[in-house]
């Protein structure tokens, strides 16, 4: 019996783990598939577009050649052209004129663009040019941004659970260390002896039947019939509560014997897992200073790794770029030379956005609590003023 029950327990635990991880895997997989489909779509639409030389581009080239021909050997005269005329000419130029669509909109470039769309970063250096691409970009963002927020909320629950458990473990360890320092050896040994004596006196007996319980209660026979009935009713309720545990085991046997009912139970469990999304972030209560320290260390790790393939970046520039990315500001002033390598950093971006999201949520909760305290103080002050006025009028 023990050998047959062990594989069944292993199967049930595996099923529980699978159905617990199923919603998280569904969200992440759906986001990955959505990103890959968007990359294929935009690489086909924007990468295969025909490059036409417009009239504006021709006038730009004519003005540029005119300025270069008028350059003289005098350096002071050329400074005016280099400082004013040429920068003004390039400011009016369209960046699309200098982009090769096949190179910019390959699969990795399109995938990088899709990640900047549904993460709402939007650096601005890559954007659709064709009218169909613009319409599809709006439609893609309309469904991609809610999906990304759903993944962020779901992963935020996991991170919030890990952070809260780590923080609680740290507080428990801190309290134990403080208790061991404050508590002297003699008092602690006395407390341990008292606890051991109290535990040794506790005897766990088997539950009695109703008849044995009635026979053991001699005081019941002496009392009036009314009180006897009340006590008997209380005993019956207590006996019924004791029998509820086997009933649950019987229901578990029915679940295991009937596969249709077991299927319904697993479906309801999955629905419960979907309903729990976003609850752990609301429960999280850790100091904001700790969250700021976690964000600083997290961005510092990326800022140390990113300059290895982005040669034009140093640590400070990479730190600035990661902060602007994780907070979804995305100015676009810092450009990546190798966006395909940065795509391997996409998991880092998602986890970092989770941490920043949790920090913002904690800050929001602290501000709301602060406003509530201020309102309570204002309300109590108003009550005191009204009491003083009432006392003054009564005099």
Automatic annotation (TrEMBL):
TM ranges: 21-42, 105-123, 135-153, 286-306, 318-336, 342-363
Domain of life: Eukaryota
Membrane topology according to the record: Multi-pass membrane protein
Coiled coil: none
One GO MF term attached to the UniProt entry: potassium ion leak channel activity
Gene Ontology BP, a term: stabilization of membrane potential
GO cellular component, one term: plasma membrane
This protein's UniProt keywords: Ion channel, Ion transport, Membrane, Potassium, Transmembrane, Transmembrane helix, Transport
Subcellular location(s) of the protein: Membrane
Location of the Potassium channel domain: 101-159, 294-365
Pfam family, one: Ion_trans_2
Keyword Ion transport tagged: yes
Family from the record: Belongs to the two pore domain potassium channel (TC 1.A.1.8) family.
Protein name as annotated: Potassium channel subfamily K member 18
Organism: Lamprotornis superbus
């Amino acid at each position: 019996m023990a050998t047959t029950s062990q594989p069944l327990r292993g199967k049930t635990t595996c099923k529980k783990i699978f159905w617990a991880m199923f919603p998280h895997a569904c969200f992440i997989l759906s986001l990955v598939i959505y990103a890959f489909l968007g990359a294929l779509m935009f690489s086909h639409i924007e990468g295969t577009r025909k490059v036409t030389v417009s009239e504006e581009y021709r006038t730009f080239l004519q003005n540029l050649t005119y300025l270069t021909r008028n350059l003289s050997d005098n350096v002071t005269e050329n400074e005016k052209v280099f400082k004013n005329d040429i920068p003004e000419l390039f400011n009016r130029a369209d960046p699309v004129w200098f982009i090769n669509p096949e190179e910019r909109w390959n699969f990795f470039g399109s995938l990088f663009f899709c990640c900047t769309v549904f993460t709402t970063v939007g650096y601005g250096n890559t954007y659709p040019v064709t009218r169909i691409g613009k319409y599809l970009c709006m439609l893609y963002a309309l469904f991609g941004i809610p999906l990304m927020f759903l993944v962020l909320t779901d992963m935020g629950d996991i991170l919030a659970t890990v952070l809260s458990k780590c923080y609680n473990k740290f507080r428990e360890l801190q309290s134990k260390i403080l208790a061991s320092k404050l508590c002297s050896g003699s008092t602690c040994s006395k407390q341990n002896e008292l606890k051991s004596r109290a535990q040794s006196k506790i005897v766990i007996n088997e539950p009695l039947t109703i008849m044995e319980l009635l026979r053991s209660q001699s005081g019941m026979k002496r009392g009036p019939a009314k009180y006897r009935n009340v006590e008997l009713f209380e005993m019956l309720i207590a006996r019924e509560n004791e029998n509820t545990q086997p009933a649950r085991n019987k229901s578990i046997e029915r679940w295991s014997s009937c596969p249709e009912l077991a299927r319904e139970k697993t479906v309801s469990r999955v629905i419960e897992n979907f309903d729990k999304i976003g609850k752990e972030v609301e429960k999280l209560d850790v100091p904001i200073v700790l969250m700021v320290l976690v964000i600083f260390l997290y961005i510092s790790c990326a800022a140390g790794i990113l300059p290895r393939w982005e040669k034009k970046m140093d640590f400070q520039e990479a730190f600035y770029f990661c902060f602007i990315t994780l907070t979804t500001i995305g100015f676009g002033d810092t450009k990546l030379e190798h966006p395909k390598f940065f795509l391997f950093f996409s998991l880092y971006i998602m986890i970092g956005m989770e941490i920043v999201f949790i920090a913002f949520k904690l800050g929001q909760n602290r501000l709301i609590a602060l406003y509530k305290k201020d309102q309570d103080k204002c309300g109590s002050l108003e009550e005191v003023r009204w009491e003083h006025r009432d006392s003054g009028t009564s005099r």
